[in-house]
Every structure is written in structure tokens, then in C-alpha cells.
Design a protein that fits this description.
24% strand; alpha+beta; 444 residues; 8-stranded antiparallel β-sheet; single chain; globular
Amino acid sequence: MLSAEDNELITRSGPDTPAGRLLRQFWVPVLLSGELPEPDCPPKRIKVLGEDLLAFRDSSGRIGVVDPVCPHRGANLYYGRNEHAGLRCVFHGWKFDVDGRCVDMPSMPADSPYRDRVRLKSSPTREWGEYVWAYMGPAAEPPPLPRLAFALVPPSHRYVSKKWQDCNWLQCVEGALDTTHFSFLHMLVGTDEAETAEAVMERIKHAALGAQAVRNDRFKWVRDDPMPAFSVDEFPAGLVVGGARKADGDDLYWRIAHYLVPNHALAPSAFPGENYHGQTFVPVDDTSCWIYTYTWNPDRPLTEEEREAARQGHTIHAQVDEHYVPKRNMGNDYLIDRQDQKHNSFTGIQGVSEQDAAIQDSQGPIADRTREHLGPTDLGIVRMRRLLLGLIRDEMAGGTPQALSHPDAYAVMSGGWVAHKSKALDEVMTERFGNPQGYVGQER
């Protein structure tokens, strides 16, 4: 469990909180690139880390993320006119570029220096991996973008989406690292299969290369061993979290996830040749968040069948409406089917993503971790909290996270493997990926 003080410290993300200041030192995705589809398109309201902001794409295609309040008389620039390399306030015509500079002030003499003294608060932005990323921190020069593996492949090799969730962002991170729950939350009743990312993609089509011989056994191993033994290794970008279940004979089935500081998690499912999955969790405020979800394959383009499956809410992706709110959500009890729960699945809820959301949301807007009773299978969550709290306290003391200096350390892949019970996590990772961390480009 955590103390009430630590629970408060680790969950609050506003601009005046220690965790909020830590999160602002890193780049965060704030939109899908497709939400600003063309130059001079309508601006987009966004809320990130408790701040109301406005995003727009200018005439040259550059994106600005700015304070939406015009510094003249406080009109909201959402109603502004996006024109000729800037956003013009419709109240008195003051116009601002993507860097927040005032480039036109019709209500003042043309030679007035006043224009140079007025500007909007703005955040540096980058488009990468089909997301718009913003840096909301204090540094004059932003750090390099984290080289997450999904963004290193061609667009044809990946599918990206986002979804809304009605709880504190940290509950979602913990859910992603808690791979023990696959033995129940995503399991079908009375069958050898689990409603996991592997199962869905097998049903869709994907014939795994080296994993072909074991793909059907994975579900049985997950079902039959609800008490995996966890090992956790730290590296410059975060944690490697491995859970080992009993397989056949003297072998163990490893499902290995990554926690990448401060708010990314990679799923533990893929064998060589299969699709990889990951998520980035971005607080809207303290009781809601956006989850940016991505699937990629380093070896080949994704098929249209796989893309359609993602759009329909399979694997980590949710089936969402035009506002990116899942169609099965807290407001409609995730369309739970009690008869299906009685006869077919543990939850009666369709979709891996929605099953996760239902449980994470059910913990409350901000989970009360003082009431927990943790056990050995919670080791990954314990280590993640310890690492994150350490980073927050370092920030309070004026420190800078070492991960900011290691963007290449984010280029890792998680996955599954079967290995002899005598092998430790670092040996399993080396056997699976060619190195103990899972760095891209060294997979066997």
C-alpha cells in the first residue's frame, strides 16, 4: 500500500504539483495528427495536465499549442480565424503565430513596439508517429523525443489511435503492468483460450513465425497458472517487468512488459513475427486521461484486416465514437452482459480495452492505495511506484531525470518467450531480443 501522502504525491498532475512538474519535463502526445487534417483547418480545444489549451495548424502545416486566451481583452481564440500563418482573434484582430508571437495588431499604430511585448504562452510541438507531441516544461531547449519503437517503423507498419478514460492516469499505467490479471479479467470461461491480444489476432489471421508451435498453448498456461513469478530489472528508460508461468516440462512461459518513464507501457504479448502493442497515458486532469494506443510490426506492413480489427476495438484499441470516447464506457456500464458473464467470460464485457477500463474506472476517480493489500504478483507495480516516486522527489530537489538524456533507451520491444526454468529475466531477454533490455534491431 501507499501512504495517503504518497498517493497524493504520485497522482496529482496539475502545473503546481511535483508530479505535474515531472511530467512536464517530458514530451507528451496531445492529439492524433489527423485531428488537425490540413493547413488553416479549424483549431482544436485540448486539455492536458489540467491546462486548457488550443491547437492549430498554420498555413505551412506547422502546429501550435497555445494558451487560448487572447492577451488583449481575454476573448477565447477557439473562435479565432486560422489564416495566413496565424490565428487571428475575431474581437479586435490581434493575430498570433504557432510560437505565440503577436504578428499583427490592427488596433495599434503600425510602428508601435507594443506588439513585440505581447505574446501567448506556447509549447514546442513535433509531429511524430502520427501523433502531435507537445513539450510543456520549463527548459528553453526541449529534450529529444523518446525514440519509442512504434514511431521508428514506416506508417504502413503501424496503427495508432486514442481513447478516453474516466479515472486517474496512474491506474491505467498500473493496469498495463499488471499482467497477472490475464488469468481472469480477459479469460473466457470453460475454454482453453483467453480473450487476450494474442487470441484476437490469432482469430483474425496472423500466423506467428517462430511462435507457431506454442501459440495455442499460451492460453492454457495463462489460465492454469494465475500466480506468475515476477522479476524486474531497471534500465535508463524505466523497467523491464517479466512474469514467468509454468509451461510444459521444465520450461516457463514469460510475458514481459516495459514501463518507460514517466507514462508509457509496452504490452507483453508478442512472439517473433507478431504485432507489438503499447500505450501512452496522458492526464487530462486528475480524474480523467487520454490513452494513446499503438500497434506496430517491425517486419511487415499491417494488413487491412488487422487495421479494421483495431478500429473495431480488438487488442489494446477501443471501439470509439467520433469524440474518441469508447462506445462501451462508464456511462453505460460498459454494456455488461450478465448472461455472457455467467456462461462465457469472467466479465460479460466485450473488448480487452473495455475490460481493463471497467476495472480501472471501478477503483474510483483516484484509487485509494492506502486500502490495498499487495502480494508477490504485484512486484512490477511496487517497483514502478518506487521509481516514479523517486523521480518526483528528485524533481522536488531540483534534479533532472536521467531518461531525458537517453532517448534511444526508449527504443525497446516487449514480448513473450518460452525458456528453461533455470534462466533469469536478463537471460530470457537476451535469448528473445539479443540484449537484456529488448532494444530494437537486435531481435533474434
